[in-house]
Amino acid sequence: MYCLGIEGTAHTISIGLTEGTRPLVTASKMYSPKEGGIHPREAADHHSIHVASLVEEALEKAGMSRKDIGLVAFSQGPGLGPCLRVAATAARALSISIGCPIMGVNHCVAHLEAGALTTDAEDPVLLYASGGNTQVIAFSNGRFRVFGETIDIGIGNMLDKFGRELGMPFPAGPVLEKAAASSDEYIPLPYSVKGMDVSFSGILTAARVLHERGASVEALANSIQETTFAMLVEVTERAMAHIGKEEVLLGGGVARNKRLQEMLEIMARERGARCFVPPPELLVDNGTMIAMTGVLMYDSGLRMKMEETVVNQRFRTDGVEVTWR
Ligand code: ATP
Ligand code: FE2
Predict the structure, then answer these.
(1) What residues contact residue 60 under an 8 Å CB cut-off, 6+ apart?
(2) Among 72, 96, 91, 94, which residue's Cα sits nearest to residue 3?
(3) Helix (H), strand (E) at residue 301
(4) Is the CB of 130 inside a 6 Å radius of any atom of ligand 1?
(5) Which atom of ligand 1 is nearest to 172's Cα?
(6) Ligand 2 centre and the CA of 108: distance in Å?
(7) What is the pTM for the complete model shown?
């Protein structure tokens, strides 16, 4: 069965096609604000302008037509309401016009399942570090549970905000990674781990102040990475020890960062555990991970009525009933 997945939780609108859970093609467009942060309604307008042509582009790339599609999956939450509604509306329209079933997918769970399906990870602890989300997730007692998370902003948002103030283009994460690679100066920043949770806004404030006082961008980028990645690795390791898992998986756009990958690999090696990094195109938000997860759900016997396809901005990871594991 071919599945078409639509991702639209935040700044990216993306269409993925899969054959069963095997990825075929992805076609994406990212909204980037001219200035300031992401404006939900502007992002939603961007998505509605591009969604139909991305469907055509994906089908064309795969050499398929609409009637080949056996399932339409979409990101049901969590995310920005206006953006979610564009993806859901497009999914409903496609499902009705094709006459095929529809499946709403939890975005965070999709990061984990797509990562597990494209690596050798079977039952990993996921470190999901993206723009809007930062969570440590694992499957335990029948549900995906959040073992630790940010109590304020996502790590990627923090990097993007800091970069924006320095005049860097959006997204700033990769630019800061480059800057960090050319420095080994470490300036202490607030190490903000609270129990199993982390926070980033204090680090952002401290970095701002240090920059005003003349600290170099390179040294600050390096210090931000070393501090925040150590926090994430610490919480991830504690989750692994607590629930006795021997695998760790990375997900989210920030997981593209080579230093974060390296630090997580070192932690895993020292514990005798295995570390997995999915292909980079599946780390950022994409429709393919939504399609892959939709197929897992459908194959386990789940069915969704049209009235159950309302979006859920605060769709919790542990709110998903897992019938496929
Ligand atoms: P969410 O998954 O929560 O909806 P999102 O749409 O912002 O959030 P992604 O597309 O997964 O997330 O990732 C985008 C984020 O990843 C941005 O904040 C960007 O700065 C960050 N990022 C991308 N590449 C790197 C890198 N090499 N180093 C650090 N951060 C990076
Ligand atoms: Fe994401």
Answers:
(1) none
(2) 72
(3) none
(4) yes
(5) 20
(6) 6
(7) 0.95
Nearest CA to ligand 1 atom 1: 132
Beta-strand ranges (E) seen in the chain are 2-7, 12-19, 22-30, 69-77, 102-106, 125-129, 134-140, 143-149, 193-194, 197-198, 247-251, 274-276
Q: Which of 83, 208, 88, 89 is nearest to 158 (CA)?
A: 208
What one-letter code names the amino acid at 61? K
Quick one: tokens of 257?
């960062």
What is the position in ligand 1's atom list of the atom closest to the CA of 171? 20
Surrounding residues of ion ligand 2, Cβ less than 5 A: 130, 285
The DSSP string of 187-236 is ------EETTEE--HHHHHHHHHHHHTT--HHHHHHHHHHHHHHHHHHHH
Could you give the CA distance from residue 236 to residue 155 in angstroms, rounded to a whole number?
A: 15
Quick count: other Cβ atoms within 10 Å of Cβ 168?
19
Ligand 1 pocket test, candidate residues 146, 155, 254, 262, most atoms within 8 A of CB: 254
Which residues, in sequence order, are bridge partners of residue 17? 4, 25
Q: What are phi and psi of 80, to 5 degrees?
A: -85, 125
Alpha carbon separation from 272 to 61, 236, 275 (Å, rounded): 42, 14, 10
Q: Model confidence over 218-227: pLDDT tens digits?
A: 999 999 999 9
To test the ligand 1 pocket, which listed residue (285, 289, 290) has its Cβ within 8 A of the most ligand atoms? Answer: 285
Q: Which residues pair with 272 in a beta bridge?
A: none
Which ligand has the minimum distance to the alpha carbon of residue 132? 1
| 35 Cβ neighbours under 8 A, 6+ residues apart | none
Please indicate whether residue 3, judged by its CB atom, sits closer than 6 Å to ligand 1. Answer: no
- What the chain holds in terms of domains, given with CATH numbers, is 2-110+282-319 (3.30.420.40), 123-277 (3.30.420.40)
Per-residue pLDDT tens digits for 114-144: 999 999 999 999 999 999 999 999 999 999 9
The answer on pLDDT for 1 being more than 80 is: yes
Sole residue written with tokens 């020890």: 241
